[in-house]
Design brief:
Blueprint lengths: L3 E5 L14 H22 L9 E10 L10 E10 L3 E9 L4 E13 L4 E2 L4 H8 L5
């Protein structure tokens, strides 16, 4: 299956006093990759129901190497690991061609903002998620 790859630019303000990307900034990078994947990528495929209807249930990040400022973006590679009735798992690698800087995972749930609780994934959403499913 395909992985979604997002080129994420680094900003000077992402650095902390130790001269590398601050650990909290990694969550922002993952968010930017998810927005590109679920808003832009899904919309281009005709799936618009993810927009504003996903919530993060859980994040986990393993930092592997320090990432310092550079003009080239890092790649955020994202894939789906499991699909449940109302939620699904994502895995990420923050990397370039030579180095993996971090590995992460998230659980997201489909959400009905009007009712204030999780909702079931639609068949269209499930089919789109399957395109990126990998172990």
């Amino acid at each position: 299956m395909a992985h979604f790859v997002f080129p994420c630019p680094l900003r000077w303000s992402d650095m902390d006093t130790y001269g590398h990307v601050n650990n909290v900034v990694y969550l922002r990078y993952l968010e930017e990759a998810r927005v590109a994947m679920f808003f832009n990528g899904a919309r281009e495929a005709g799936v618009k129901s993810f927009e504003g209807e996903l919530v993060v249930v859980r994040h986990e990040i393993d930092y592997r190497r320090p990432l310092v400022f550079r003009p080239e973006p890092v790649l955020i590679e994202t894939w789906v690991t499991d699909i449940r009735s109302s939620s699904f798992g994502l895995r990420y690698e923050v990397r370039d061609e030579e180095t993996t800087f971090a590995r992460a995972s998230s659980v997201l749930a489909a959400y009905d903002a009007d009712l204030g609780h999780a909702r079931r994934l639609t068949q269209e959403e499930r089919a789109w998620l399957e395109r990126f499913r990998s172990e």
